[in-house]
Design goal:
Blueprint: H1 4-9, H2 16-24, E1 33-35, H3 40-53, E2 56-60, E3 80-84, E4 91-95, E5 100-104, H4 109-118, E6 121-122, H5 135-141, H6 148-151, H7 154-157, E7 158-165, E8 168-171, H8 186-189, E9 198-205, E10 207-208, E11 212-220, H9 223-236, E12 242-246, H10 248-256, H11 263-279, E13 288-296, H12 298-314, E14 318-319, H13 322-342, E15 347-357, H14 361-378, E16 386-394, E17 398-408, H15 415-432
Parallel strand pairs: 1-3, 2-3
Antiparallel strand pairs: 4-5, 5-9, 6-10, 7-8, 7-9, 11-13, 11-14, 12-13, 12-16, 15-17, 16-17
Amino acid sequence: SDDPADRLMHSHGHTCHELFALRTGKIGRIPDVVVWPGNHEDVEVVVKAAVKYDVCIVPFGGGTNVSGALECPSEEKRVIVSLDMTEMDRILWMDVENLTVHVEAGIIGQDLERKLAEKGFTSGHEPDSLEFSSVGGWIATRSSGMKKNVYGNIEDMVVRMKMVTPRGTLEKNFLGPRNSIGPDIHHFMLGSEGLLGVVTEVTLKIIPLPEVRRYGSLVFPSFEPGVAFMREVARQRCAPASIRLMDNMQFQMGQVMKPAASFWKAAVDSLKKIYVTKFKGFDPDQMAACTLLFEGTPDEVAIQEKRLYDIAAMFGGIPGGEENGERGYLFTFVIAYVRDLGFDYSFLSESFETSVPWSRVVELCRNVKDRVQRECEKHGITYPPFNSCRVTQTYDAGACVYFYLAFNYTGVSDPIGAFSEIEAAARDEILSSGGSLSHHHGGWMQAHL
């Protein structure tokens, strides 16, 4: 298609500056043509033609990319083709005995999970973008999901993949669980952001759906003991499917966004608040919250719950209830919609993440938030920014930390310029404090080379 609407729709991902450009009509270069292949062979034909006629291809999955990989360089002189993979959305086969499924790379995450669930299985991969992102996008960005503690990151789930490159198709002829022959071509494909080729088909591990899925939550007097709790859980290797620690600002935002309660529910909530603040002595301006998701058999979940709550008590944590845990877990999916709504009220916002050793988690969080505050003042941001973080994934040697930044740009002459400089300063502070440039959003940067 060369329809302007199709071309515009395929010209951007979901970064703050891309969406702001769309809303203000300041659009740069867009693809010249959009092509929808129907299968692997179609992709081979398109790539061969692109090589022959010196055409630039930008693979497009769910369009949720946040590293700028879908933007068309203004200096690019060649014809740009957006290769939309979403017509390639089939499950090609499922092997129940070996617990694998072979899918086309354009299938959207929630569609894959729905089809697997109909057969009693799951891939277990649940990124925040599950309802829009594609399997090919998971590969291209080296994705991580909220339940990685049980199911692993995307690199742990992939058994085999097929990629069409300018030199031909790359694919392993092996479906076993491990192979010592290296180098492993999968590691060149993972996180490649479409630079090396187009992922067309993927074989993933699957497991039976868990018998029990139960939420939980904890409240800590402050962020620091919450981090210490997370570290102990990682040390004991007893993390549930998902465990996420929110700082005070996110905790308060979650409270503000709670739906209106009935009279009796409001009364019960009031009593709980009195217990936490008056009897336990928690300061509402310091408290941190942790959301939990347990999956497994009834016995496994019961054992996990007792162990986690016992560890939490060692660090001053108290149970916050299943309902709060479910609300906190689902809040992760809501944040992107809140970001988009904020545009209507002159707010710019973005999230970015890092991985960092346990010994530097608290220091890094403090340093980055302090740096953001100083940068906002430097750029003349009138109102206090939303400047928050959460610990989202745990490992033996460290954790993933997400930062959320938002501010009202009223009175700022160049909002996106100011936002970009503030975000860049925050990322510099992350690197200076011992963190990585990214944990799971892909990107090719010299800082890691």
